[in-house]
């Protein structure tokens, strides 16, 4: 369940409470759902009870108590706690995480066409929602337009559609009335439509960056934004998003190798308790367990949202959406990866196998997304 879906779930809980006469309030348009703050618990938290308390004429804690059973009965929600002055802390059903990992792993290495001729399952995130749709891109003879069009051929194909690319000479008159708007791509695919596509060109020759950094430099910004051609994309450090994405994929593969050396493999299942991380404010202070947000939440959310991001990248002809989301997946994996392998004399457990499976699923998504962008996903980095 993504934050957007959970926000809708919270609003439905409010609506049910109003319909049953438990609350007399106007159902708000939006419910804010965020990771829990200090003193919170679970996967997500919402302040909806505090938001409604004044109009309901009740203390926030009473509003939270009214909403809690409606939220708890929602599919995908395991439990709801009330903390502080009335925050609702939501624990998601971990079975949903197991299903997600199994779905990604089950699609790994598959390549169904989505046209009915290939019965094999589609790779995770791929679909046939654009089956039969063809779009013609009219692009100038420009390296950025060429790279974006090349990526769009694969991204649209991942949703069952097809892209045909034609070139327009800079000397030809602009009769479409649309070429003066850089990156104007429309909002939907129409069979056979001709879409003029003139992204903002690179300010200088990007070829010295090499093929992977070149493509990232041209694909990561939106088509209407000017790309930055800088040697920073070649530096292996955390400030470089391309490095983080490729490094996260390499880490996922390294975890598989290290786990094999310890005699276990990844198996979807219960991730176990990840809240026992320790911190020490100074070297002289003993390590003290403190409550921490579940480090799996950002990664699971990013993996859950990947299919919808890929679909929007195809329908809006926007490879930058996919590139930016891969950074989110990578950051989620890098924050989680330290929990995967046993520590010290600890023996591999079912939880370690489940965490390895989740890390491997993230690696699969990163590899698939980079492939659609035409960028190499290294096993070693």
Description:
This protein has 381 residues and is an alpha/beta fold. Among the domains are: 3-92, Gyrase A, domain 2 (2-Layer Sandwich), CATH 3.30.1360; 241-373, Isoleucyl-tRNA Synthetase, Domain 1. The chain contains ten helices and nine strands. Helix 1 (3-19) crosses helix 3 (60-72), helix 5 (143-158) packs across helix 8 (296-315) and helix 7 crosses helix 9 (319-336). The longest helix has 24 residues, at 350-373. The radius of gyration is 24 Å and the shape is globular. One of its GO terms (biological process) is arginyl-tRNA aminoacylation. Pfam families: Arg_tRNA_synt_N (PF03485), DALR_1 (PF05746). One of its GO terms (cellular component) is cytoplasm.
Features:
single chain; 381 residues; alpha/beta; Gyrase A, domain 2; Isoleucyl-tRNA Synthetase, Domain 1; 4-stranded antiparallel sheet; 3-stranded parallel sheet; 42% helix; nucleotide-binding; arginine-tRNA ligase activity
Concise account of the structure shown:
This protein is of the alpha/beta class and 381 residues long. It has 10 helices and 9 strands.
Strand-residue proportion: 5-15%
- Corresponding CATH architecture of the domain at 241-373: Orthogonal Bundle
Strand arrangement in the largest pleated sheet = 1-2-4-3
Order of helices and strands: HEEHHEEHEHEEHHEEHHH
Q: N- to C-terminal separation?
A: 32 Å
Structural class: alpha/beta
The largest sheet, given as strand count, sense and whether it forms a barrel, is: 4 strands, antiparallel
List the helices and strands and how they pair.
Layout (H helix, E strand, L loop, with lengths): L2 H17 L13 E2 L9 E3 L1 H9 L3 H13 L4 E7 L3 E6 L1 H14 L26 E6 L3 H16 L3 E6 L25 E4 L14 H9 L21 H21 L16 E2 L8 E2 L6 H20 L3 H18 L13 H24 L8
Parallel strand pairs: 5-6, 5-7
Antiparallel strand pairs: 1-2, 2-4, 3-4, 8-9
Organism: Streptomyces phaeolivaceus
Enzyme class: ligase
GO biological process, one term: arginyl-tRNA aminoacylation
